[in-house]
Every structure is written in structure tokens, then in C-alpha cells.
Amino acid sequence: MTAAYDPPATRGIEAPRAPKRRVAGRKSNFEMYSWLFMRLSGIVLVVLVLGHLLIMNILDGGVHRINWGFVAGRWASPYWQVWDLVMLWLAELHGANGLRVVINDYARKDSTRFWLQLMLAASVVLILGVGTLVIFTFDPNMS
């Protein structure tokens, strides 16, 4: 062997944006729970979305039967309201969590990361608020 050989065990790779300091006695598992949420919500979303697509696009005439009356009849049932609400919340939080990771990976400056995450949080609150409001206040008798 030559003297220039440097075994992999002696080389160190610094973690990107590693925390500068840790608060003593406080250990956060946020990233682990975030990772776990992505996996579990992904599984549940596959079932919810495939069920939604099957019902809305394939069964009983497909998309040609979807109109105001169909939506009114569907959301008259608390079962379908909860189905659509869970699908909305899981999809929004799943996507926002993924985008949060992308922002953390690619935003170089702390200020840029802060503003991007603030805009992401604001959009999540807005979409969840409006979507939930629409599902629960939908009036089938609106003229």
C-alpha cells in the first residue's frame, strides 16, 4: 500500500446544517416522528385516494354523473364528509411535511428558510381552513 491511502473510517463527512448547539437535557424526536408520519400517512392516503378515484371515476357511470346533486348527496352523509376531510388533512400535511424537508435541504440562508417555512405554514393553514369549512358548511339547497 502507498502512504497516500486514507481508509474510509478516518474520513469524516460533516452533516449538512448540523445544529450548532443542543439544549442540555432536551432531546427532540421531531424528525423521527415526521419520518414516521410520512410513511403512515402515505399508506392511509393510498387507500383513501384509490377509493375516491374508484367511486368518483369508475363506478356507476364514472365522471359523467358528477354534478352538484352528486356532491350534495355525497356530503349529506357524515361518512363521506369524514372520508373527504381525512383525505384533505392527510394529503395537505403529508405534502407540507415533504416540502418542509425540501426547504430545509436546499435553502442555504437561515432567513430564506424561515420565510419559506412561514409561507408554507400560512398556505397549509389557509387550505386546511377553507377546505374544512367547505366540507362542513356545504349547502345542497343553495340557489
From TrEMBL:
Subcellular location, record wording: Membrane
Principal location: membrane
SUPFAM superfamilies membership: Fumarate reductase respiratory complex transmembrane subunits (SSF81343)
Keyword Membrane in record: yes
TM annotation in the entry: 36-59, 79-102, 114-138
Domain of life: Bacteria
Matches recorded under Gene3D superfamilies: Fumarate reductase/succinate dehydrogenase, transmembrane subunit (1.20.1300.10)
Keywords from the named record: Heme, Iron, Membrane, Metal-binding, Transmembrane, Transmembrane helix
One cellular component (GO) term of this entry: membrane
One GO molecular-function entry: metal ion binding
The protein's name in its UniProt record: Succinate dehydrogenase
Organism per entry: Nakamurella flava
